[in-house]
Amino acid sequence: MVSPELVRQAAARLHGRVIHTPLTYSPSFSRMTGAEVFLKLENLQKTGSFKVRGAANAILAQSAEIGPGGVVTASAGNHAQGVALAAREAGIPATIVMPRDASLSKQEATRGYGATLLLQGETLAESLLIAGEMAEEKDLFFIHPYDDPHVIAGQGTVGLEVLEDCPNPDIIFVPVGGGGLAAGLAVAVRDQRPDLRIVGVQAAACPSACEACRAGARVSIDPGHSIADGITVRQVGAATFPTIRDLVDEIVLVTEDQIAAAIVLLLERKKILAEGAGAVTLAALLSGAVRAPAGSRVVLVVSGGNLDPLILDRVLRRQFLAMGRIMRFSVCLPDEPGALVALLSLLRDIRANILAIDHVRHGPGIPLFSSRVDIEMETRGHEHIAAIRADLAGAGYAIRVR
């Protein structure tokens, strides 16, 4: 098990090499929950994630053991970038194995830090096996993304910074994937605050650590697709599990809709871009999965901000539809001059802002002398949508909301 002393050594080693990220108070989330909510913004860390802490500490602590071939690792994204940057700053080569379907933006970022990138393996587990074989065959130094004591200790420095900036928190929410961050943070904060409550958070699509704690032993699961790809890990680490089992009070699960809602809230209320894995802590607090007592001091670790722009676009559109910020509908109009102008004039009068419009004259279900209009509009919420539907119905339009 990683010791508090190993975390303190990591903090000394990393001083000036990584960013002491902000711990910021959120009035909005505090009002929503009745607690005093603080955000530990690791999305503002170098490479956009806490992962660089563990990667840099592992390289610096073991530099004498690293040969001329450099280091090798496997990662779906954030650890890859952390190792690539830490290796570049240490002046050694880095080879990164990523699953074939890894985010394109994370691939490009990893290459941008100077690493050699290999897309091999269908899953992270397969990529890890390939990286381990390369380490033996080519005499490279293997850095595991979470099952390494120096990596765990490096991630634990997040906990030391939390206690430095907020000496008396009552609850810390931390994301859990392979468990490096949760285990390291738990070791660091329990040493100083043994009474503090630590809540681990996983995506319901991949509850590997949660199931391991229930079973009392590590289990391997078949994960579903998740926005929180950074914590979609089939099996919690062998080195991290005992620490999580002994020092983390509980692990809770959040749904994809809850994660998506948290991403949008962080962006709207705090202007913070968080990836899915970074937003799960807010999702857990707001979902009521854990009740924070009124007035308690709550810290949410926002572990990263490397969200693919295409995924962000999907999340925003989905959530805006759910929130009533976007309305989509179809309506059949007489195929005659002025019919479309009349509809658009009505929408103008009820102050609906049209985002997209498609005028279809031929297709299944469209009467011979009619056309179908598909419209997407920006709206002000569900009450506005109800008013729009009533006005359209009052004007004789039979719409189909999509």
Explained architecture:
The protein is of the alpha/beta class. The chain has three domains: 4-49 and 149-318, Rossmann fold (3-Layer(aba) Sandwich), CATH 3.40.50.1100; 52-142, Rossmann fold, CATH 3.40.50; 324-401, Alpha-Beta Plaits. It is 44% helix and 19% strand. The protein has 15 helices and 14 strands. It has helices at residues 4-14, 27-33, 51-61, 78-90, 104-112, 124-138, 149-165, 180-192, 208-215, 241-247, 256-270, 276-287, 309-322, 339-349, 382-394; strands at residues 23-25, 36-41, 71-74, 94-98, 116-119, 141-142, 171-175, 197-203, 250-254, 297-302, 326-334, 353-360, 370-378, 399-401. The strands form three sheets. The chain has a six-stranded mixed sheet with strand order 1-2-10-7-8-9, sandwiched between helices. A four-stranded parallel sheet has the order 5-4-3-6, with helices on both faces. A four-stranded antiparallel sheet has the order 12-13-11-14. Strand 4, helix 5 (104-112) and strand 5 form a beta-alpha-beta unit. Helix 3 (51-61) crosses helix 7, helix 4 packs parallel to helix 5 and helix 11 (256-270) packs across helix 12 (276-287). The protein starts with a helix and ends with a strand.
